[in-house]
Amino acid sequence: MASQERETQYTVLFEAGRLPKNSQDHLRVIAEETNNGVALLDCRVWKGKAEDDEAVATGKGLCLRPEVWRKVIGLLEGALERLESKDFFDGGRL
């Protein structure tokens, strides 16, 4: 007897915000919950301007549990500090 896998469904809890990425795309951060009760934060690129409610989500982004995001944020903060340090740059180039 073949087992049937249930497709994961997501419920939007709230939208944390939108940030312009460039002239045509923006980022959205959305808090979601799966039908299994798992809380997730989705940071994704959307096609269209931030104020455009007809914008379409792309496949570019990350959807992670909050505890993983905290680790990613720590890595990003370290990388930003390193990039912004004067010792990192060699003549203004990476």
Compose a concise summary of this entry.
The chain has 94 residues and is an alpha+beta fold.
Compile the SSE list and pairings.
Blueprint: E1 10-20, E2 25-34, E3 39-47, E4 56-64, H1 66-84
Antiparallel strand pairs: 1-2, 2-3, 3-4
The gross shape turns out to be flat
| CATH fold-level name | Nuclear Transport Factor 2, Chain: A
Proportion of residues in extended strands: 35-45%
CATH class call:
Alpha Beta
CATH architecture: Roll
Count of spatially separate domains: 1
Largest sheet: 4 strands, antiparallel
- The order of strands across the largest sheet is 1-2-3-4
Spatial extent as radius of gyration: 18 Å
User: Assembly state here?
Assistant: single chain
pLDDT averaged over residues: 89
Number of helices: 1
Report, as a whole number of angstroms, the end-to-end distance.
58 Å
- The strand count comes to 4
Poorly predicted tracts of residues = none
SSE succession: EEEEH
Task: Write a structural description.
This protein is of the alpha+beta class and 94 residues long. Helix content is 20%, strand content 41%. A four-stranded antiparallel beta sheet has the order 1-2-3-4. It is flat. The N and C termini lie far apart (58 Å). The mean pLDDT is 89.
